[in-house]
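Here's what a typical entry looks like (SET domain-containing protein):
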Amino acid sequence: MGIISLITSHGSAFESLQVHQRSIAKSSRSIIRCLGSQDGEKDEVIVRTIDTEASTFDWDDRIDIQKRWTNSEKGWNVGVEWKETPYGAGLFATQDIDAGTLLRKGRIGLNLIEFQSIEEIDIFCRGSGDCSSSEMDAKLMYVKDYLWGFNPNADERGYDILDSGANKLSLEHEEARFFGMWVPGNGLNHSPNPNTVYRAAVPGGTEVGIDLFALIDISKDDELLDDYRRHGTAPTWLLSFARERGVTLNFAECNDFVVCSDEGKGP
């Protein structure tokens, strides 16, 4: 086993440790451990899932991929599970969840990756470079299904705050938007009545990560849902990506299931 650096946080203090690297399914797993508070809160461990190679499992199996790590390793703080729905894999609560509860922590470079260009998506899909064309295609399909947009300056429900009279985001807020993907994806299907909301990490903002919260009370067995309209509009480079690769994306102008008056769910 190799040795990796482990970043720990306890309150506001950070320290670097050396720990043994674990290997599962031929994929090394780097770990960030967030120590609990002094009141004895359970430690949280987030695995570096974004480095997992396509050859280690089937990226086309949206539910099986979730089984490669424990929920806590993926950053989940609550009980959830994935089931088949008419729209593909869906995410369901296995416990009652209060509004405002932190559901999942996303940290850049671990379980969350930011894309700022088509080239960066291609680099992710190629992995170490020894992927077969079919494996790269599978990762491409995963990206197109799970890539989303996030506005860190949105309102408390996650919706854009438009410039008065302009009916669009200010240039500052437009430039602050995040485009990326959780690995593995959350599995939130689309609904105009979401029960979850994304918020920028505190402290650090989107340079550190993005967190998923319960927007309202969620009961056990309820499906967790997102409103894809909150992803905003796709930037020019993502529109080019969708056109060049012949794929749909989870933005209203890139599919036929997210529209302003939509009452259905996405895939």
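Residues 65-254 form a domain with the Beta-clip-like fold (CATH 2.170.270.10).

More examples are in the samples folder.
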